[in-house]
Every structure is written in structure tokens, then in C-alpha cells.
Amino acid sequence: MKDDIYLYNLARWEALAKANALFTRPKLDLDKETARDYLGLDRLGVKGDLSGKTVLCLASGGGQQSVAFALLGAFVSVFDISPSQLERDKAAAEHYGVAISLFQGDMRDLSCFDSDSFDIVWHPYSLTFVPDSRVVFHEVSRILKAGGLYHLMCANPFFSGLTHNDWNGDGYTLKHPYEEETVTSYPDQEWVYDQSKSPIKIQEPREYRQSLSRIMNGLINEGFLLAYFSEIKSNDPESLPGSWGHFADIAPPWIEYIWYYYPNIINRMPGSHKNTDATIHTVQLPLKFA
């Protein structure tokens, strides 16, 4: 699926890797105990032993989450658009002496994986790099086992395209319409990479708004049940107005979810549309991932 969206994202992430951006730096100081903390598993309510679990780190290259899961005993695959990012995963795996599998491609097409392949799909920030999140959710639902876990971290749709640069002296001014697939772009934050040392000018992120309704209904319609939801703030009460920390406390820029995949939990009427009313049966949800 090498359309303009693919080519833009590929070029940008190859350039970010060359600039040693924050999300391209492998984690080389982990052990089994710190790996759980780094992934936030206990905070997210993901309990139990991950030894032998199959994990896909989706659009998650860079040698970070992949090696953390591998240190916890999981069988890890990494799928990413950037070959340079995958090279970071390979280097990190060699550093720890663990095995991971690497796959290059577009998250809208996961046909390289068989159905029911994974116990966990771990999906850091990248959903808004494609226009329609539902395409990704459908792919994830196919490759995830029944009862499997889908971790998703993405942009808060209400503040899409907004940054600390939008401070007007009184607040942060919303400028973009709250519509599906509205294209937004903005300068990279200073903490993303050292722009003074970048050998080339890197294209700004091109992101597509995904409304909360589309995200939630898209996942529900695929058979996912929500187990955890959080709005991520900076928690920096000393930050000054117009700074990133202040902005992130006023307008939390990210959302994090844990979903479990139960494809038959919603009993729909024959011929009805997936967004119409449905009968929901009570089930016993897992208290831990086992």
C-alpha cells in the first residue's frame, strides 16, 4: 500500500531515525524488573506472567517496547514502516541477547500475519498518521486471539493539531474543525530531536483527526471491550503559560487505552448495521492477563 501516506510517513521516520529523535533511541538499560515499569503494565492493570505470550509491537520500532517484552519472556514481533527503526530493534535485541522478529510495512495492511497470531498487540502513538483508524482496528482484530489484549496510545482528538505555540495570553486557541480526517501539521517539539544538529530538514508530522466516536465505535464494532482509559497530562504545576508542560496540563494531548478482544460479545440483530442498538450479554472479564 505504497500511496502518498505511506511514502510521507516512511520518509519522515527515516529522517527522524537519522536525527536520533527521542522515539528512535533504543532502551539499553532495562532488566526484567524495570521492563514492567517501563511498559507501565501494573499501572495499566496488565497482571500476570508474560512468558511465552506472543506480542506484536505495532508501528513500534526503535528498540524500546520490543526488548522490554522480550526481557519478560514474550515472543516478540515488531512491525514498523521504517527500516532504520527496525534496525534499532535488531541492535537492542543483540545487546540483550534476546530474539525478536522484524517486519516492515504499513499498519493498514497486516496480511503478513496469520489470523489469531497474537496474545497482545502493543500500539504506541501512530494511529493519527493514517486517515481512517477503522482500517487498522480491523487488521488488529484479525490477528489478535480471542481474549487478547490491545494497548493503544493515540492523540486526544479534541486537541488534535493544538500545541503550546497556540497560547494567546489567556488560553490555547482551537483552530481546526472537529471533523474526521482533518489534516493537521505542526512543528516538532524541541524534545523530539535536536534540530540544530539534524543533517537535513525533517518534514513536519502530517496527522489526521480521528474523532473519539470513530475510535470508540470502531473498536466496539470489531468486538473489543474497554478495560482501561486514561488522559495523559504533564502533571507539571510549576510550568509557565505557553510552555509544553502548561499546555499538556490544560489540554491533555494523549489518550491511552487497554482493550480486550471478545469477537462474539455483542449479539447483533440479523441484517442490522453495526452502529445500531445491540444486546450486550454479561460476561466475567479477566482480572489479569493470563
Structure description:
The chain is α/β, with parallel strands linked by helices. The protein has one domain (4-280): Vaccinia Virus protein VP39 (Rossmann fold), CATH 3.40.50. Helices cover 25% and strands 21% of the residues. It contains 7 helices and 11 strands. The chain has helices at 4-18, 32-39, 65-71, 83-96, 133-143, 212-222, 244-250; strands spanning 54-58, 75-80, 100-104, 118-123, 144-155, 183-185, 206-208, 224-232, 254-261, 266-267, 279-280. Helix 3 packs parallel to helix 4 and helix 5 packs parallel to helix 6. The chain is globular and about 55 Å long.
Number of helices: 7
Share in β-strands:
15-25%
- The 3D shape can be described as globular
Helical residue percent? Answer: 25-40%
Unreliable stretches: 268-272, 274-287
Major sheet: arrangement of strands: 3-2-1-4-5-9-8
Strand elements, count: 11
Briefly say what this structure is.
This protein is an alpha/beta fold and 290 residues long. The chain has seven helices and eleven strands. The longest helix has 15 residues.
